[in-house]
Protein 1
Amino acid sequence: MAKQKENKTVAENRKARHDYFIEEAMEAGIELVGTEVKSIRAGKANLKDSYAEIRNGEAFVRNMHVSPYEKGNIFNKDPLRDRKLLLHKNELIKLAALSAQQGYTLVPLSLYLKNGMVKVSLGVAKGKHNYDKRDDMLEKAAKRDIDRQMKEKSRY
């Protein structure tokens, strides 16, 4: 019987789900050098304030911080360098069309390992207003209160 491998999430952009409405998400590979892969496997990556853009028919993720590998010495690259995303041509065209619309952007949602490869979950996002964020917080608080009351009733 074949083993089913799990995805190990290395970094998650929680702020993206708070600041944006995620319309669509897709998986992309990412072009890395060896020391970056070792550093990501050690959990030393950060997606905060990162975003993706499409230039000249290629997708790049910007401001993704990958800490230098301790034992990498001269082979370490710049921690904030632009990294190319690996997507099929039709996926690139689709993302370019979606992100070209007014108010939409491409945001990396999470960085994870899948079958030994580093993958990025890329979301097409639209910015939230402050009142949208407050509504989300109120809904979350209400759900938490309901769950707490249901748990108390089930005890008795």
Protein 2
Amino acid sequence: MSKAKVYFKTFGCRTNLFDTQVMKSNIARFECVEDEAKADIVVVNSCTVTNGADSGVRSYLNKMQHLNKKVYLTGCGVGTRGEEIFKQNLAHGVFAHSFKESIDEFLAKKERFFYPEENPQHIDSTFIAQFANKSRAFLKIQEGCDFACSYCVIPSVRGKARSYPKEKILKQICDLSENGISEVVLTGTNVGSYGVDLEHYKLADLIRDIDALGVIKRLRIGSLEPSQIDSELKDALMLPIIERHLHIALQHTSNTMLTLMNRANRVESDLELFSAFAKEGFCLGSDLILGHPGESEAVWEEALENFKQFPLTHLHPFIYSKRDGTPSSKLKNQVPGNVAKARLHILKDIIAHNNWEFRKKHYVPLSVLCESKVAGEEGFIYNGLDQFFNRFHFQSKQANLEGQWFCFSKYQIEREGNHGNI
């Protein structure tokens, strides 16, 4: 008798991608498939960061219902919309984060069920030692967040910050290495808070211990908060194993807005921090929210002038999207969507110019991890990321180069990326 086929649909962040991998690793009585059309069962790992994210999940659930799939809901959306979705019969089963390792048992249940979060301090025990079809691995090292940013609902659905045991993390990295992974990205809800619940062990210590293993070539750190980067962490981030790119979440470059957002960082100290890393040769990225309530024209002009002073080369800009239940959702002085969009494009243009200028000024040998390829006129066109988190394309007549490292001392710098040949 053939096994029922299960498809996982993941919405949202890299942490959710990791959570999906945890669930896949606990499937025994079913067959995981990568094509939803072939699936009998669909597990939706939801995101609830904005009202729009909720709408996207609901729309997908409706679509799967019309296709007669047996649907289950998990993820962050369980805490905000789970009961509503269950009562409306949009999912056969709904279960919170702490239950995901029981997925094999849940998918076998004939009766409908709703399991809300009962253990907000839960830490997964599942060992993830490989990622299918990936040349790098994302490794979750912590859960939860202790910040209270006014626009964010995530602390209420992910819980307080808690850390995975260092022994487990280090063993996972060794196993990943044995499975051919040579680059690891440390991820979590709030990576910089790693160790907040441990005695005398912080993110800086973990980085040094990973470096001491000597089993991977490159380590990338997920998004950090400026207020979490102390002198000890700065020193650890200078280790050669660390990618020469850091993502530090500013969210805004106006102190007026940072106060409204209930952020811990301030422009003056942020600029000092970014300038220090830039002097060490790092490419620097950030998150930035445009159009948050209160971002008047005067505030925007001030923020823009401040933004131009930052040595930023990468940016994830977001137009503010209302999230019910957050302090920001109650604020007046809303910013029209077209105004926020115009501001976003201004920042994107600045970053594109900054990135191009950085690449021209830092013409150094580039270490590229090859990720994927497409067929070209003469062989294949491969692409990957260099040590500065910049996209690199190269041509080769050789097949099956994915997952390998290449060093390019000669290459062409174009606005959209760097190009080379093998």
Protein 3
Amino acid sequence: MNGATAGRIVVEVRAQDPISQAGVAGQLRTRPEVSLVGQSDAEVAQVVLMVVDTVDEVALRVLRQIQRTSTARGVLVITQIDEQQLASAAECGFIGVVRRAEATPERLVQVIGAVARGEGYVPADLLGSLLEQVGRLQGEVLGPRGVNFNGLAAREIEVLRLVADGYDTADIALKLAYSERTIKNILHAVMTRLNLRNRSHAVAYALRQGLI
């Protein structure tokens, strides 16, 4: 960490074999955008970059262990991957995925920067099929249960929509045929679950998510 410079993204590189680790670390070491740390300084890493051949059970155990023990966001450099493996990696917090064949220093720095900002990166050919998988899950599993991918139930969205329209608790209760206590409980549950400060913050969140 001694060589780190202000403004650089602190990155830990891991791999299933030492040659891969040395290769990727060598590509990144000269880049001014990042500062590399070893496992002994892993707690200060903002991004952990993991090099694997595929997301098999062995790799998944490592990804889950990283998720449990680190606050860093994850980038996966991988030889081959399909939609299911992509979903498994995302569940472990690895929201950036780069195929080895495309892992130039420029691409790696681009993806590391995106992930450090909380953005995801997925190979273009997998994005469409991943969105189809998400759509199927919403339509076949979550939708019938009245739940959306954002974790909000249909009635929670309806309450937020009415709050945004300027209705108070009594009016919302009357419109939706709930008690005022139920409306208050719904709003409290939403704000607690999503770490929202107040009703205005909850409405702003719903607007940003395109829910209302």
Protein 4
Amino acid sequence: MRRGGDRMRAIYLTYLAWFIALTIGLPLVLMAVEAVTGFDISSSAVSIIPAMIAAHLSGISFVKRFERVPEKSESWRFTFVAFGLLVVATLVLTAGFLMVFPDLQSEVAGMMDPGVLAIFAAMMAVILLVLFVTTRIFFGLGARTQFKALARQREKG
């Protein structure tokens, strides 16, 4: 049992690494595209894409390590742990961003108005729910895709 836990730890770290890299890298790539082309192709999906891709790649990683599709209980356990990592990583990245760009602190302080804070909290609740569901769906999707590819590979020889 311990060995499986160690292998899952690697999958969680894979998720966290991809999530952080994409959370930082995707906006930078989009800014570069805008600087070169003059077109702003960013959208609200930028906040969801890192979790989607990280979960998908983690599902692939699960199948590569265990050579099977995760059971439902394993997929849900992954989702809860990955979601916790997502929340903590987002808080740490936000704090770091505010330290690097202190001018933004005054804008964030402006959100402390109760009306604005309530709207922001409601929006964040919806985004977090979408991220949770997205993580669950894309972990399973990545695992099933990799498992089918592995099965086709075995059939070929």
